[in-house]
Amino acid sequence: MDKRKKTLLLTSWISVIGNAILSVSKIFVGIISGSMAVLSDGIDSASDVVTSLVMLYTSRIISRPPNLKYAYGYEKADSVATKVLSLVIFFAGIEMFFSTAKGLIFSEERELPSYMAIYVTVFSIVGKLALAAYQFRQGKKTGSSMLIANAKNMRNDIYISCSVLVGLMFTFLLDTPILDSITGLLISIYIIKVSIEIFLESNVELMDGIKDISIYSQIIDAVEQVPGASNPHRIRSRQLGNLYMISLDIEADADIKLKEAHEIAHAVEDSIRKNIENIYDIVVHIEPTGMEPHKEKYGICKTDITVTEK
To answer: What does CATH list as the number for 215-309?
Structure first.
């Protein structure tokens, strides 16, 4: 846990510094070269600095220990930040869409920028590639939806910079700057699509769902490996960041002693932890074998999984 939080903080700082360098470079060169495309790209990178600061603040929140108000800790701050990032990406895409559409509709004329605009754009693409790859790798390593969302945002920035580069090339070589606007319009639509996908994906965790439903089959298999434990049912699983919270009911012989039932419950926990990674907590409730089942409307049993597979 401590290692994960340190990784989140380090990755967030690298994102802040990297994006700040790229943003300042593009804004400065955009102004002196006369390239509005590069200047706009620099302003977009400035929004990434804000996004990275949100990540940094969130990483510090996640590192707080559980307390009376938040007994499960602050891991879900990761999902809340992911939601914020999706909205930032969405509005950046909307802004880019309307600005490029305006240029196409009103046929705005552009002055020919200097070649310095091309150099800084290539520098931006290389820098963003490195940052996006690093963020995505660290996001997968720590299971952080926030880092993965930001990596996707940086990937979008690469596409933006590539469209700027293509537009500049057409401007210099073919004298057809309108293609720059068309490319920018298509990329803005793609960015909006990605932001919506990130927004919907973050809903799963915030609504106490899980992204990989095969975990229920793994839980049932783990229980069936424990002697004395049977009929796992009313299984619930939800995520706290990259960690799983699992609750379930099992059945055991009604005539065994309390100590034996306690040992079976512990064996079930150990078996689940052995078969499933990233467990935060497990709650096992034991019922006498053959007892009339509860009528709760929630929870998964083996029959539900069989029906789903069919």
So the answer is: 3.30.70.1350
Q: Give the DSSP letter string of 15-38.
A: HHHHHHHHHHHHHHHHHHHT-HHH
pLDDT of residue 176: 66
Q: What is the DSSP letter of 63?
A: T
Tell me the pLDDT tens digit for each residue of 187-220.
778 778 878 888 888 888 788 888 888 899 999 9
Q: What is the rounded CA–CA span in Å between residue 260 and residue 270? A: 15
Q: What share of the chain is helix, strand, coil (3-state, %, to 5)?
A: 70, 10, 20
* CATH number listed for the domain at residues 2-206: 1.20.1510.10
Mean pLDDT of the chain: 81
Report helix, strand or coil for 209.
Answer: coil
| DSSP code, position 68 | S
pTM: predicted TM-score of the whole model, two decimal places: 0.67
Q: How far is CA 270 from CA 194, 236, 237, 280, 300, in A?
A: 39, 17, 16, 13, 20
